[in-house]
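Lecture 7 notes: from sequence to structure.

We start with a single chain of 160 residues. Read the sequence below before looking at the structure.
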Amino acid sequence: MSAVYGPQSCRRLRLAAAFALALGAAFITPAFADNVSVNVDEARIMRLPDGVATIVIGNPLIADATLQPGGILVLTGKGYGATNLMALDRSGRVVLTKNIEVIAPKGADLVVVYRGMERESYSCAPVCERRITLGDSVPYFNSALAQSGTRNREAATAPK
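Now the structure, written as tokens:
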């Protein structure tokens, strides 16, 4: 069974379709609106809705979050990748959901040196110094981390 539509019917059909599209577009939120990007090893401040009592991070190896008084959240990039963040009120109801993406810093002072398969990172502002960055080769990363740890221990035990 086929139907034949006249010019008036086609016009109404097109108007109805255009109205449906416009109405749908009014209620669509862009997907990126729920995404938050933070650089690895950096912090970002976010304001949370009133009444948040608990925060949950899907993968704490990728990001960490600390709830501060006044609805302030400190979000820190820990490792490259993506995870999610949920904020709950006292009754356990989810009041906020965000996708968290932890990315590499894009500063002009970051220099990455490749020696065959080995990778080393340096901060060059203005003099180049070793930088501990995820993805560096294991010997380089461990050596820089050990030096930094030794320095911090010595500073903590120095006579005052």
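The chain is about 25% helix and 40% strand. Keep this in mind for problem set 3.
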